[in-house]
Amino acid sequence: MKYFTLVLFFITSLQLTAQKVNIVPALKLIQQGKAASAKDSLKVYQQINRNDPDVLFLDAILTSDGEMALEKYRVYYKNFPGSRFADLALYRIFSYYFARGLYTKAESYLSLLKEHYPGSKYIKHADRNIPDERNIPEEKNIANRIPEKQKQVERKPVPEVRPQGKFTIQAGAFHNRGNADNLAAKFRGAGYTSNITEKDVAGSHFNVVMVGSFTEREEAEKFLDRIADKFNISGRVIPLGN
């Protein structure tokens, strides 16, 4: 009986040890720009305990596709609201929507962050005056912030895509530059102007894809309706700055 108790204690101790995964070293690697090394660490952590909340969070951080990462953050927050990275997950979701120009959605997650984690250090980073989605006079032209070497030459212009205008379509925001390049290439291949700019929002880095230039919002919205299904996007019409 004593032997059985010792064995049970030993097994339980191993199980508890397996549940404790320290992802801080991997997070430091990410901060140092060593994502590849962090991914190697993630593989090791997943072998130890794939379902550990911290491991799941690290997996979300290292997911390059913006939409997939967004869903992982949502699942993480929903399943582990008491975890030590829950507020950071909300902060990341907020950052994604803000970068996409979905300010109402972004504000809803900022409200959740304030309500459930009032002491979170991320509130001061995320808190800002979020403009209305349909009236953003202070919004600067994202395309104008692209370095000269990144600007693309317009190819096969069509009537609805003009060199100058007041509105454009924000078609996507990606952590992975390759995904942004692929989407922009599809637009250009179809004869539309498309630019990519790098944008840092609340500590999260995005590659933002813009397509088209329009003099009237209605014109831009009709164009968005036409390309949404064709390119499988959920873009937004946004004003161009002066």
Description:
A hairpin with a 2-residue loop joins strand 2 and strand 3. This protein has 242 residues and is of the alpha+beta class. It has a four-stranded antiparallel β-sheet. It contains ten helices and four strands.
Brief characterization of the structure:
The protein contains 10 helices and 4 strands; from the N terminus they run H-H-H-H-H-H-H-H-E-H-E-E-H-E. It is α+β, with helices and mostly antiparallel strands. It has a 4-stranded antiparallel β-sheet.
Sum up the overall morphology in one term: globular
The oligomeric state of the chains shown is single chain
How many alpha or pi helices? Answer: 10
Q: Beta-sheet strand percentage? A: 5-15%
Trace the largest sheet across and list its strands: 2-3-1-4
Helix content: 40-55%
Kindly provide the radius of gyration, computed on alpha-carbon positions and rounded to a whole number of angstroms: 22 Å
- Helix vs. strand class: alpha+beta
Mean pLDDT: 76
